[in-house]
Amino acid sequence: MQKGLERVGFDALVTRDVGQIRGARGVVLPGVGAFSACMENLGKFGLIEPVREVVRQNKPFLGICLGFQLLFSESEEFGKQKGLDLFSGKVVGFRADENLKVPHMGWNRIEKKKDSPFLEGIFSGDYVYFVHSFYVVPDDSSLIATTTDYGSSFVSSIVTEWLFACQFHPEKSQELGLRILANFGRFVAAN
Q1: Catalytic residue selected from 77, 104, 132, 171
Q2: Residue 31: what pLDDT?
Q3: Which of 16, 27, 101, 171 has its CA 20 to 30 A from that of 186?
């Protein structure tokens, strides 16, 4: 993620220093791995409240993959797990069958549901890269920015005035992903 932002011309610092996070002009919460382990690590390093603060204070925020899922109330991954509860909703798993391989991995299309500065130059039918077994079901459908079909339609990103969070990986989505990172960087610079 850091290299992707730097590639499109924006400085990025990987840190778990609370002061640097609170002082940042924009914050990215990436995520790889298990929901419970990530929440445990956020707690261990004293980052739960700082992440909640930056979102509640309308600081530009980008959540990616697990960093998107953690924003919600709970996950069913390895039993019921509590999330950051910044948005009401839950994270549920795909149900594998003979036609649906889990994890959902590879390129897939997005269907754009909402315009946003974070999605400038992004269109319905564009392909992005996914690697995930779980997806978000937000209680508030007005948050939905894009959906994707994998067995059925699921929410692949949400947006508010100050936040964009996506299930797909912009840093692995080639030019289109770099466009999303550049949009985020420009938004941070303008605010």
Answers
A1: 171
A2: 80
A3: 16
The whole domain housing 59 covers 2-190
pLDDT score for 9 = 72
Q: What is the DSSP letter of 58?
A: T
Out of 38, 65, 77, 132, pick the active-site residue: 65
- If we measure between CA atoms, which residue out of 134, 135, 154 comes closest to residue 146? 154
Q: How far is CA 190 from CA 19, 42, 115, 141, 162, in A?
A: 22, 29, 18, 28, 12
Selected catalytic residue, list 132, 166, 169, 175: 169
CATH number of the domain within which 75 lies? 3.40.50.880
* Residue 171 bears catalytic tag: yes
Alpha carbon distance 82, 80 (integer Å)? 7
Q: Which residues of the chain have pLDDT under 70?
A: 1
Domains in the chain, number: 1
Query: pTM of the predicted model, to two decimals?
Result: 0.94
Task: Say if residue 103 is preceded by a cis peptide, omega within 30 of 0.
Answer: yes
pLDDT digits over 117-138, tens only?
Answer: 999 999 999 999 999 999 999 9
Please state, in angstroms and rounded to a whole number, the distance separating the CA atoms of residues 156 and 65.
9
Vertex 65: Cα angle to 21 and 176 (nearest 5) = 95
